[in-house]
Write a structure and sequence with these properties.
The complex is a heterodimer of chains A (401) and B (478). With 401 residues, chain A is of the alpha+beta class. In chain A, strands 6-7-5-8-9 form a five-stranded antiparallel β-sheet. A five-stranded mixed β-sheet of chain A has the order 10-13-14-15-16, with helices on one face. Chain A has a two-stranded antiparallel ribbon with strand order 1-2. In chain A, helix 2 crosses helix 3. The longest helix of chain A is centred in the middle third of the chain and has 17 residues. Chain B starts with a helix and ends with a strand. In chain B, the strands form three sheets. In chain B, strands 9-8-10-7-11-12-6-13 form an eight-stranded mixed β-sheet. A seven-stranded parallel β-sheet of chain B has the order 16-17-15-18-19-14-20, with helices on both faces. Chain B is 42% helix and 18% strand. In chain B, helix 4 crosses helix 5 and helix 11 runs antiparallel to helix 13. The chains are: A alpha+beta (401), B alpha/beta (478). Chains A and B meet through helix 4, helix 5 and strand 6 of A and strand 4, helix 12, helix 13, helix 14 and helix 15 of B.
Chain lengths: 401, 478
């Protein structure tokens, strides 16, 4: 990720617009990105400073702001592995050189009877004692410094476009560092969105308006003080969100220069892409085949919908696998409980207990019959290898959805 | 049978009991009705958190809440503090001077507050005495890594306790621990309930929207702030009263000059830029001032911040900003400064000298020119100690540092310091001056300030002389 010092953004009527390189507006950058990748791909054995210098030279004559170049260097470095230089060996060398020089301090430009130690002569002699000449010693004296670390390998970006895509996402992420609030409005992929938020350790508040869910993400202290301390967690969450569909977000960004705040707005069609793998729509094969078998049409008036409902209590959210909607408006949720570990079953029972006031039909695998522990008080059907449609229909009529 | 039923009943009671708990830098209280909350705590303390369906407040309010609950607990179980008594294996602290004793007793009155004492008057000893007296779970927060390690050492030497370290990629939380401001504000949500006493060294660093969380997200009832310079140019020091407490003791620098601090002189030495530097400097200066002048014709309030903001997308503003930075770097690295250093080394041969550079680049240049140790951020613990001890023991004639030594790093009794760059703010200047003002016999300390003539640097030096500690700067040409 980038650091705050590398953030570039413009402002337009209360909106914050992170720096963005597109094929249309920045056609030249595809070629430049290709060249940058080339520098790193062929850079093994070179030190960080010279890599950065070479990258900088690629941009000479262009109007690219220096900060953008530094940002590219940071992203390229993030995908690199550097050897840190032998810290203790270099420190030892320094110590030895400084101690040797201390005996003839000060090293003077023109020696006289009082101070007889001529600078260049002494440097030559001290270097010799260390088995090299002065220019060599000069280069080695600080080689453990970050800028002298040597590139060991470059994992890199597949194509020029992936570096540019990463850059665009990184600028949006760094803008979120100062985010005080983040609201996501979603029409699908709820489960993934919440899962990514949880991974980033954000707290959520969920509200539903018509068929859209509103997620407000922040942290424990957010409601007590206006704080951007969870901004970095929001930045971590962003790539996950970008891999989902059917959402838009708006973040409130603290901006002291503007005596208040700015808005950062993004959605699933904003063109930012991330390589985070999409979460599976289905937990297991059983659900998938049941869904296919049921089909699109209504059976006895019941239609099957997938993942359109979130049940939530406090910070616990529960996504039933299916929702059955009857023509007369009744709704029944169905959750499939398959072959799971005892810990999972235990957790699942606890969650289901929280939602005992909802009509939830449980489809439980025969193999774990009786292992659910406590009675959850929900209607049950059992299945062996596949869930039987007839059985489900019968159970649906028995519920008071 | 009867016994088992009473056990069940008891369990049920505990399950239904209200709990006060620490959660991510906040306190949560469950099972209280709104009416009860308002009646017992008033309107302001608690906020209803509908996300977690509980009452929530920031951890700093814990002492107040604990006090209220001790009167009106209503069976609320306080599961917040995880404090421990700490027994010191061996207390070896120096006898305190009268002003240090005043500081200790001033703080002990309320066990909250800031002790303001000039650098070199023994703030650390005051804090160690307080730690020894209180013997409780304590977290010391220092501005930088070096100072964190220094505290670790001082606690080991003075109290015989091997404190935990949180920072510098180490995370070892013990009942007594040391950390940095950055780590403290990041990790306080996880350990804010483990310390009873917080000590903020150089506490003017604490205010700030996130940094302040290091104080806000802790439940510690006892808080001590240490600083030489409370005032911040942004006025944010007013937050310290809430975050730490009121001023518990204050000693001014002019109260101690000649007392526990050495007498000192400040000499300013001007150097000329060489021809090449001068030509370049003037060209750049012209470029910058023309641009700013033109812009102000249209926007009278055009300022530095606007320029920085624009430089991100405008190539022209970017060029102006680069020109400004190069100009600064010419001042900072003026060739002539190295010549002046050589003269000073000749003049004070045999006396340890501390040199402060304005940038890492200049510090390394001095180091390479004279082959002197240079104390930068990359130095490890052992190397750093070798340099500092080496300067004290006369192994190294001088060392050069950048900002690293700005504050609080324990230095041997250096009597001569040379500043060859940096020092934009009053606080930085005061602190650097404080570094050399260590009492040692009747020797006077000298601070040389080497500035490039006819540059912004010279202008900054003039402004600094208005500061009390710098009053009486004398000019000296070498």
């Amino acid at each position: 990720m980038l650091t705050r010092e590398l953030a570039i953004a413009t402002f337009d009527r209360g909106r914050l617009i992170p720096d963005r390189l597109t094929r249309k507006s920045h056609a030249l950058y595809v070629e430049l990105a290709q060249s940058m990748l080339h520098v790193y791909q062929n850079g093994v054995g070179k030190d960080r400073r010279s890599l950065h210098n070479t990258v900088r030279q690629l941009f000479s004559g262009s109007d690219c702001p220096p900060r953008r170049i530094l940002a590219f260097c940071k992203l390229l470095d993030d995908a690199s592995e550097y050897a840190d230089g032998d810290k203790s060996k270099t420190a030892k060398l320094r110590r030895s050189v400084f101690r040797a020089a201390a005996k003839c301090h000060p090293l003077v430009t023109i020696s006289d009877s009082l101070f007889e130690h001529d600078e260049s002569e002494m440097k030559r002699r001290i270097a010799e004692e260390h088995g090299m000449d002065w220019p060599q010693l000069k280069d080695r004296l600080f080689e453990d410094l970050m800028e002298y670390h040597v590139l060991k390998s470059f994992e890199g970006f597949e194509r020029a476009e992936s570096l540019l895509a990463r850059y665009n996402v990184a600028q949006a992420q760094v803008a979120l560092f100062d985010a005080v609030e983040l609201t996501v409005v979603a029409t699908q992929d709820f489960k993934s969105i919440l899962r990514y938020a949880k991974l980033a350790r954000l707290m959520h508040r969920i509200t539903k308006r018509s068929n859209r869910y509103f997620f407000e993400f922040d942290g424990p202290a957010s409601l007590l003080q206006n704080t951007h301390r969870y901004g970095s967690a929001m930045a971590k969450f962003l790539p996950g969100l970008l891999s989902c569909q059917g959402w838009s977000m708006v973040a409130k960004i603290r901006a002291s220069r503007f005596q208040g705040s700015l808005r950062l707005e993004l959605n699933d069609e904003c063109g930012l892409t991330s390589e985070t793998i999409r979460a599976d729509d289905f937990d297991s094969k059983v659900e998938e085949s049941f869904c296919a078998k049921w089909g699109e049409q209504a059976r006895n008036g019941w239609r099957l919908e997938r993942e359109t409902e979130i049940l939530h209590r406090g910070q616990t959210a529960f996504f039933p696998d299916f929702v059955f909607v009857h023509e007369d408006g009744r709704r029944v949720l169905m959750e499939v409980i398959g072959f799971w570990t005892p810990e999972y079953l235990n957790h699942k029972s606890k969650v289901l207990k929280l939602f005992h006031d909802q009509p939830i039909l449980l489809a439980v695998a025969e193999s774990i019959k009786g292992k659910m522990g406590v009675d959850i008080g929900q209607p049950l059907i059992y299945y062996k290898t596949a869930i039987q449609i007839e059985q489900v229909l019968k159970a649906l009529e028995g519920t008071n959805g | 049978m009867e016994q088992s039923s009473s056990q069940t009943k008891q369990r049920a009671n505990i399950l239904n009991q209200a709990h006060l708990e620490f959660s991510g830098g906040t306190l949560v209280l469950d099972r209280w009705t709104e009416k009860a909350i308002k009646k017992v705590f008033g309107d302001k303390l608690w906020t209803w958190d509908d996300r977690a369906e509980t009452w929530r407040t920031i951890a700093i309010h814990y002492p107040e809440i604990r006090q209220i609950l001790s009167i009106n607990a209503f069976g609320t179980l306080d599961r917040v503090p995880q404090w421990q008594k700490v027994a010191w294996s061996e207390v070896k602290l120096p006898i305190l001077r009268p002003e240090q004793l005043d500081a200790v007793s001033g703080w002990t009155q309320h066990r909250r507050g800031v002790v303001v004492m000039p650098t070199g008057t023994g703030k650390t000893e005051v804090a160690l005495r307080i730690m020894a007296d209180q013997g409780c779970s304590t977290l010391v927060v220092a501005p930088i890594r070096d100072l964190m390690y220094q505290w670790h050492r001082r606690i080991l030497q003075g109290l015989g306790y091997d404190a935990g370290i949180i920072g510098d990629n180490i995370r070892n939380v013990k009942p007594v621990s040391v950390t940095t401001y950055d780590s403290a504000c990041i990790h306080m949500p996880t350990f804010g309930n483990r310390f009873q006493l917080l000590i903020f060294d150089e506490c003017h660093h604490l205010p700030g929207p996130i940094r302040g969380d290091a104080a806000r997200m802790s439940i510690a009832p006892m808080r001590l702030g240490l600083t030489a310079t409370l005032e911040r140019s942004d006025g944010q020091h007013s937050q310290l009263e809430h975050l730490i407490g009121p001023i518990a003791y204050r000693l001014e620098i002019n109260q101690v000059s000649g007392g526990s601090l050495a007498e000192y002189d400040v000499f300013r030495i001007s150097v000329e830029l060489n021809d090449r530097e001068r030509v370049r400097y003037d060209t750049l200066a012209e470029q910058v001032s023309t641009y700013v002048y033109d812009r102000r014709q249209e926007e009278p309030n055009f300022n530095w911040q606007d320029l920085c903001a624009e430089s991100l997308r405008s190539a022209e503003s970017g060029a102006i900003l680069r020109a400004f930075k190069e100009k600064q770097s010419i001042e900072d690295c003026a060739e002539e400064k190295l010549r002046v250093l050589e003269d000073l080394f000749r003049l004070h041969h045999g006396t340890p000298i501390l040199i402060f550079a304005g940038s890492n680049m200049m510090a390394r240049r001095v180091s390479l020119r004279f082959l002197l140790p240079c104390l930068l951020n990359h130095c490890g613990k052992a190397e750093r100690l070798d340099y500092l001890d080496g300067l004290r023991d006369g192994i190294y004639p001088a060392i050069v540092a950048n900002q690293v030594l700005d504050e609080g790093v324990d230095l041997p009794a250096v009597k001569i310091a040379v500043v060859i760059g940096g020092m934009a703010s009053t606080r930085q200047a005061k602190q650097r001056l404080g570094r050399i003002l260590r009492r040692r016999g009747n020797e006077r300390a000298i601070l040389y300030e080497v500035v490039a003539r006819d540059t912004n640097e010279a202008e900054r030096s003039r402004k600094r002389r208005k500061n009390d500690a710098y009053a009486g700067t004398r000019h000296r040409h070498l």
